[in-house]
Amino acid sequence: MGDKTGISWTDATWNPVRGCSRVSEGCRNCYAERMAARFSDPGQPYEGLALRVWKMAGLSQPRWTGKVRFVTERLADPLRWKKPRRIFVNSMSDLFHENLTNEQIAAVFGVMAAAPQHTFQVLTKRAKRMREWFEWAGGDGDTRATRRIGDAAQNAGARVYDRTGPAYVDGNVNQARSPWNNSLCKWPLPNAWIGVSVENQEAADERIPELLQTPAAIRFLSCEPLIGPVNLIGIAGAFRKATSVVGALTNTGWHQTGLAWIVVGCESGPGARPCNADWLRSLRDQCAAAGVAYFLKQAVEEGRDEEWECSVTAQAGSKHKAGGVIELPYLDGVQHANFPEVSS
């Protein structure tokens, strides 16, 4: 966790929140839950947030406790990273967890606004809470949002960049500071990509409509772990896009109305469930037909079959992982590591 990561579709992770709870089948073998349980002893970062639950067979099964912790000392981390990078927000939690306040979420967005050199990738399974938070923050083009996120970041103690000058200002409300310049902070944030996790069709039908109602410069899906086939074409608006200025979002200069990016991957680790290569092909083909960027993160290696000369294989640029999983695999002879086009 930090300014480097092994996750192939991002450059860094940032965790201003710790702790989570399960909400769907996609959470069953959560890697974050396993990692948190390893560091949950007294005095460790996840104390009180995760537990090792011992089974009679002598094996341990990690569990979140449902508690979350807002980690103020980690809030300003991206402001210290000068080199532009893609940053996965809360790889160890969910920014829209129900036990976080609206103001705490706003503080995180305030830091994103204060670090325009970075691209922030926000991913959630709590799509309804996400949409409701954006409505609370201000919605499309509402200057209330920029005021709320700026105030929240400074009140939380973050070092918030003063957009009127080159200096950082202390976010401690008890000390003098330069004012947050609301007028220069665009909403929705042009450097924030907003996505939902989709593990099967049920999750797609529930979460994608909520995402499509959420203002964002880029909307994306993480279909990982993919544990069933997903048909996106039948979801109204999923592949609708516009490359010109749309409605009240004129301050961003560009807006994607549908999905712009889909990350796909099999489950890995203990108890991993199978992922059929045909599910990967289906999403690949849906994206190709709609002109949407497709990123195949990982899949289990497969040999030749009757229909395809090759299926899932490791070639140049791939990496072997435990359990036969390949990072950045080739699907039918082609590696898919595509990112969405972003207009300035």
What does this structure look like?
With 344 residues, the protein is of the alpha/beta class. It has one domain (78-335). Helix content is 22%, strand content 19%. The chain contains seven helices and 18 strands. The chain has helices at 31-38, 77-80, 102-114, 127-137, 143-155, 201-212, 277-290, and strands spanning 12-14, 17-18, 50-54, 60-64, 69-70, 86-89, 119-124, 160-161, 168-169, 192-197, 218-223, 261-265, 293-300, 312-313, 319-320, 325-327, 330-331, 334-335. The strands form five sheets. Strands 1-6-7-10-11-12-13-16-15 form a nine-stranded mixed sheet. The longest helix has 14 residues, at 277-290.
Q: How are the SSEs placed, and which strands pair?
A:
Layout: E1 12-14, E2 17-18, H1 31-38, E3 50-54, E4 60-64, E5 69-70, H2 77-80, E6 86-89, H3 102-114, E7 119-124, H4 127-137, H5 143-155, E8 160-161, E9 168-169, E10 192-197, H6 201-212, E11 218-223, E12 261-265, H7 277-290, E13 293-300, E14 312-313, E15 319-320, E16 325-327, E17 330-331, E18 334-335
Helix pairs in contact: 3-5, 4-6
